[in-house]
Protein 1
Amino acid sequence: MITREPVYTDAPATAWGGLWRMVLLGLADVGRLGVLTMQALAGMPLMLLSRRQRREWVRQMYQMGIKSLPVISVVGMFTGMILGLQVGLELRRFNQEIYIGSAVMVSLLREMGPFMTALILAACVGSSMAAQIGTMTVNDEVAALEIMSIDPVRFLMTPRMAAMVVMTPILSFYTCILGVIGGGIVGLTQLNVAWDQYITTAMDFARMRDLYVGLFKALIFGIVITGVSCYEGFTTRQGAVGVGQATRRSVITSFLLVLILGYIVTRMFYDL
Amino acid sequence: MIRFDHVTKQLGGRNVLDDLSFEVKKGEIFAIVGPSGTGKSVTLKHMVRLLTPTSGEVWVGDVEMSAVNGGELARARERFGYLFQGGALLGWMTVEENIALPLRERTRLTEAEIEERVMQALSAVGLERDGGKYPSEISGGMQKRAGLARAIIREPEIVLYDEPTSGLDPVTARTIDQLVRRLNEELGITSVVVTHDLQGALLIADRIAMLTGGRFVEVSPPKTFVATDQPDVRSFLDAQFISKKGLEGF
């Protein structure tokens, strides 16, 4: 049952009691979030069999991917430009500015591309998911689906999850390309690094492994953002105020998890 | 058909339902009335397991709704239609698509058969011309009627109505009442109606139950209900200007 009853507990007698209760409720939330995410992922093969669900999947990919392109383009380009400028200025002190291509490429592929993409998607797409599902929850639309014996996870969450699984790595790669172009523009206009020299050093230092790890990170971020946002939506209470709170919580939790998981995945693939 | 067996429901440390026991018979219209916040909607939500009792059992036929889960719960819920207070239509679908949704998702009917059934349901609730509109483009009353069409599209055995006439003008409210009665007579649907609208309940219900303090203080047919001396019922009737003669003046 996705429609959960509100949990009422007595006020704790001590501060430690309150802290302990917070920990327990937090762990319960993490558990439920994990189960919900797994249910949505497990529903993907069935989704592909249904024409209506496939159509919804494509619609979600358009909503999430194509509609996010303008903001992702700007962020990607300027991330590359900032990286190029900061790194280039330092490298110039050692007359090594020709290597800004490698620095920009590696940092974008490994970290900044997926990270910036995830932040934008959490803010734009995740918040909208939480608000939409939250509004449906407080308007009894999710309960109506349950009573019609239509699984809300399969019906609402799985197409969104599938769309994010596809679009986050693609958008992350797109961010990397625009970032590299942005870094190149800075190199060309402010550091006098020729375009082909910039591209050559960038390609020389880029490894396929960096690309794969970056795309894997983006995939994980996409799953986490969808899981958190839909979970917050499904657990929304108390009308319009609750929808606002759910949206806020979804963005904050997604940001934090993207940061933490970003470090964990990096640590897994790159030993010191 | 539906049986509550000593059901208690605690919400926020308060017994919203307190050892409630009653039975709704097959084919009857059972109305639950009472002041706001006394647990009428909570009672309805227990019938489809949107809420689970703190103690006691809820039975629908030979299925214990308060205990089933997963696929069994989904199958048990297929016996129900549920009209929510606000209609609960999906905002991004047209009225037609909303009504067709249970058929598209849970049956193997062809598109032609679905369209025919949807047109029948739309005409039953008087929305033939509004099927292509989105919920935000129609009035609250029309949304309720569309919600009702969706609730009955699969011809359920039981339909639960949560405030079907609240917020509607008197003419539309009576139209909905007549529709509930007609569904009951023509299709033999068992109906449970939660309402503040005592006039409507007196017109359509076979039995009326008054819920106060988590318990029924009166369960009786309309004529007996209006004639009772039970103080809670009496004050509720008086507040709606209904005398012991009932609705004779209407």
Protein 2
Amino acid sequence: MSWLQYLRPPRLTRRTLKVWQRNRNVFVKTFRVNFLPPLLEPLLYLLSLGYGLGVFVTQINGVSYPRFIAPALLAISIMNAGFFETTYASYVRMYFQKTFDAIIATPLSIEEVITGEILWGATRSLINASIMLPVLIAFGVVDLPISFIVLPFAFLAGFLFASIGMCFTALTPNIDTLNLPTFLFVTPMFLFSGTFFPLSILPGAIQVFANVVLPLTHVVKITRMITLSQVTPEILVSLAWIVIVAAVLFVLAVNLMKRRLIV
Amino acid sequence: MGEVIVAEDLEKRFGDFVAVNRVSFSVREGEVFGFLGPNGAGKTTTMRMIQCVSPKTSGRLEVFGMDVDTYPAEIKYLIGVVPQETNLDPDFSVQENLMVYSRYFDIPPRTALETIGSLLDFVQLSERRDTSIEKLSGGMKRRLILARALINNPRLLILDEPTVGLDPQARHLIWDRLRALRSRGNTIVLTTHYMEEAAQLCDRIVIMDQGRILELGRPQDLVQKHVGVDIVEADNKPEVLACLGRMGAQFEVAGERVQVFTEQPREVTAALLQECSPIEVVARPAGLEDVFLKLTGRRLKE
């Protein structure tokens, strides 16, 4: 199989949405458990970092520390929701529950199953952002009404992270090795993507690396421009980066999964 | 009667390994068609190709006259599948499992609810409607999977080892349900390595081994053709073998036993007892298992 075959666009029908609906049904069934993390996470970070560490940091580029990290907390939550949905959660459905096997015995194809899973991951990002945003609004650390634009953007960014997660799921030998991308990719991103301090204080080479390779860098840039009402044309560069990388990785994820599951 | 499945020189390779080796068969509408074979014979692989989830390597395979590579979704709308592995959705209850599954077939919720009611009656699970999957016994899970496979009122039902691991009661209930489906005119294709299951249910069977079809026909015809009507078994001892040789009998050695295939079991038994002084003699009708062991050999298939 040449590498070009991994870039073959998936053939999809409306049936794709039925996979999304299945996951939504499970989510609604266990709503109370799902609701808490995105509600508590920003509270804890805002209190400890924003108002604890913030006593010493006071201002970054003329912005108070809680206002500086608020959009980063949104971006991190978007990343976690999408990434973990299509890594651990999808892996459990695929390998332990055999849910994918059961679905492809119906008119749905594996391409539709994987796409439905990724769309659901993106939806989880949107849900997380929707629960977090009111908390940040209550603390008065995001601008209004512009910050609501974060919500549709959360779906796009979630789609990117869900596609990345699905690529790892397609390649991982077992569920334990999924810890590797978590520690080697997600955790560094969490710390070095301009989240809790500006990228500009890092060495030049690392700045380039963060801009070229780390998706969260672009997501934080965009959420920060939005919540601080400081949108510049640079938003188009980050947006383009996200759209292109998301499109490529989505197609790649579907084809890698096909290779794994269709024998 | 039309042909529901047509396979010609159907082949499936995994790298160098040939799982299904250029087999040809056809399944007629309304019949129960069984695939018998030891583990690794290629039965499940053949089922998976018919279900359009595993692409064939070469040859022709049509279901309802449609090519499996070209029309997978169209074919899958018309078939129901009972997989070997229990893959019910543990996130849902009994009824929710069927509801979610019905959506994959574009069945409107109201129609689905009606169908689910009668299907749960059919597999005797009406009382378990709201039970979660983990609380079901093995037999209940298999019955629910059967109900799930019928949700789209399929014209063709494919069952891969439908009763494996079940107790006799649960097995007989499944057989009973399958007979009911056959009498309604459903076409059924199943794999099994229970001879009794094949003999009880199937109109025609194929016996597969190492990716090839060894025989195809009606169970009783295959018994007649390969082992005759009856079998007399005695201990595999040198005296007995020598004595059988003197009598000019046709026999086969099977482990600790020696078997005589015959149409006169009484006479053979009497002669054996008189002439050969064996410790034990058993006369019994020949069955599918004898055909199976004769064709696929007695060594372990691992």
